[in-house]
Amino acid sequence: MSAKEEQLQEIEALNSIYPDEIIVLSEDPFPKFTLMVKPTTNDEDSLKPFLQLEITFHENYPEQAPQITIIDSANVDDTSAFDSEIQKICEENLGMPVIFTLASDLSEKLSIQSENRQIRQREALERRQREEEEAEHKRFEGTRVTVESFIKWKVKFDAEQNELKKVVKVDETELKKLTGRQLFEKDRSLYDSDIQFISGEGGEVVEVDESLFEDMLDLELDDAGSTGIDLSDVNE
């Protein structure tokens, strides 16, 4: 069997394994095709990484490595690392059909990258959730008191209290200067308290001894405001 016939048999085997991933570009003078390599865990990775290889056989394949080029890729961390891996696998398998072995190895490497990326994404998500939970906890917990924060609060509190005392002192000084009428006008409760006292409201009954005022009925006030009492009568 010629080298080309062996190569065509290998293409046929690859077609049965990768029916949706392989595209034969030509068979003459030697087979040339593209092969898309995907990770074995591709369905679990939303980014769906892949490598697209262009492979060209020659008259000395498989005794010599075929020509392989990465013509396309997506969501792959480092294509140069895959170039090195391709060269390494081909050198290790000289004299044997290498494409299936190579595709399996690259697929496994893509899977490892995909799994590591998913781990990083989960860790980032969990870290963000922890940070949000801690921020929410601190919001409900309030600010933790330290010696420095307490001293700062105490200084501010004392200053506010001193200002409040000044305002109260000013109000007391102004009240002392007010007349009785001004006090009633300023504080209606003073007037209401007198009304309650007279009317006996508030649960207290006010009794007045009328006998205390009987002698006052005999008193006559003159126009000048005197009582008009005859002192001789008093002396008798």
UniProtKB/TrEMBL annotation:
Gene3D superfamilies: Ubiquitin Conjugating Enzyme. It comes from the Eukaryota. InterPro entries: GIR2-like (IPR040213), RWD_dom (IPR006575), UBQ-conjugating_enzyme/RWD (IPR016135), ZC3H15/TMA46_C (IPR032378). Pfam families: DFRP_C, RWD. Residues 9-113 form the RWD domain. It comes from Adineta ricciae. SMART domains: RWD (SM00591). This is RWD domain-containing protein.
